[in-house]
Design a protein that fits this description.
With 67 residues, the chain is mostly helical. The protein is built from three helices and no strands. The chain has one domain.
């Protein structure tokens, strides 16, 4: 298992694990992905969503400060 796969899987912790595990299980059934790879894909999606949220929040704060 590669470093990126492990890192993506670690994004599924806490409530994200409760939500992401069933999604990864179904994803591995519907696609040719193995379960650990599907779990990594779901974890990466949660990570990207969180990073996007933080980036938008920082951009909004900087724009508000400039006014």
């Amino acid at each position: 298992m590669g470093r990126l796969t492990r890192m993506s899987q670690h994004a599924l912790s806490g409530w994200r694990s409760a939500v992401g595990e069933p999604i990864a299980a179904r994803l591995s059934l519907w696609t040719p992905l193995r379960r650990d790879t599907a779990r990594a894909v779901v974890g990466a999606a949660f990570f990207l969503a969180a990073a996007t949220y933080v980036a938008k929040t920082v951009i909004a704060a900087v724009r508000a400060e400039r006014r």
